Structure formats: C-alpha cells, structure tokens
Amino acid sequence: MNHLSIGLESRDRVNHAVGGGFPEGSLVLVEGGTGAGKSVLASRFAYGLAEEGTRVTVVATDATAREYVDQMHSLSYDVVEHLLAERLRYYHAPVDGDRPLLAPLTETGGVWTGDALVADGFGRLCRNDPRFGPVLGSGDEDRAMQRFLGRLDRPLAAGKVAVVTVDPATLTERALRPLRGAADVYLELHSEAVGQEIRKKALVRRFAGMKQPVDDTIGFSVQQGRGIVIESRTIA
User: Fold this and answer.
1) What is the model's pLDDT at position 97?
2) PANTHER family from the xrefs (predicted)?
3) Which residue among 78, 127, 207, 210 sits deepest, i.e. has the most Cβ atoms within 10 Å of its Cβ?
C-alpha cells in the first residue's frame, strides 16, 4: 500500500505522528468543535502534501482566497508558489445561496484534478446544500450521507485521498454515523484551557492501513510564525 506523505519532516513531527502519511484511497475525517484546530490541521495537511509534490485541492467555506493566503502566511506556510504552480488549488465555497455544494466534491475532474482533496467545513457544506440540508432531522440523513459516500467511492478507488473537517454541531448524530464508519482515518479533536494556555489534542479513533505506528493521542499547539507544533505523543 502506498502512502501520501504530509512532509515537513525537518520542521515538525506531524508526519511522524500519523505514521508517515495517509494511505492512498483513504477518507480522512477530522472532527471537532469550534476552536479545536480543525482548519489549521487541515491547512497543515494540505501544505505538507503540496511540499511533497502531491497535487491537492482545498475547498473551504470560510476564507476567501486572499484570506487563505494571509492565514497560511501567518503560520509560515507559504502557499503562493504552490498556487502559481497549481500544485495547490483553492476554492472558496460560499454557503449563502442555492447552488449545489456537495455534487462538485464527487464529480470527475474539477476538484479531483489532483491527488488529494481537503474539504474544510464539510458539515457546513452538507447543512447548506439544497438537497442534503432539508433532509437533516428527517430521519433519512443517514441514507443521504451513505449516498454521498457512495459517489465518493470513485476517486478513492483511484487512489486519491479525501480529508474532510466536520464540526459535529453542524450535523445530526444520524448523519455523522455513516461518515465516521466510512472513515479510514478518524481524528477526533479536543481543546481545553489550562491556565493561560489552550491545549489541543487529536484522538486517533481509527487509522486503517498505517505505514508505521501511529500516536494514539497527538497533543499539539498552533503558534504564530511556526504553524502546528507537536507537544506530546502516546504510541500505539
């Protein structure tokens, strides 16, 4: 089994903490509440993939392209060269309209012209999609999620990697269950205030097809000018 390295070995321990990269063909779920670190971790994954030469597409619900570049620059993740070389493509997905938001994530070409897709704010995409959103709370959202996952099988079967971030508050438990069950890699993020510090951790709920041992719990912080910094580790 081949793996996509998330790089930056000389800078941080993120790639080492996840066992040397994500297995090709895997669905990676990063779940956590507001402020848990989902977006910055997804940004680190995208930047590291691009640094390794992997073509990656980022779809995000919050930041415009300019805001994204500025945010990445503040973390010392200089994505401009990757954007110009089209190793990294960035799409802002506004959720204030009637346009389909989920269909582009499963269509051939488009966001899948590269080898990896990072969908940051996947829960918001689901909630605001004109077909998926109205199903939430109806009791059929598990079937709707299963249908979406079925359409995602094609790019994953081709060896591509999909990383999705979800705030569980944006979806129902019934919608989340199929997503959690389908994820090959499932990271559950938490944060807590300890004195003046905000400590973040990723609990590794599942990691199928690991290349090397993966940390059970990944403690990390987000530092201006440095990005993600791994702070503690517990090896499985």
Assistant:
1) 82
2) FLAGELLA-RELATED PROTEIN H-RELATED (PTHR43637:SF3), UPF0273 PROTEIN TM_0370 (PTHR43637)
3) 207
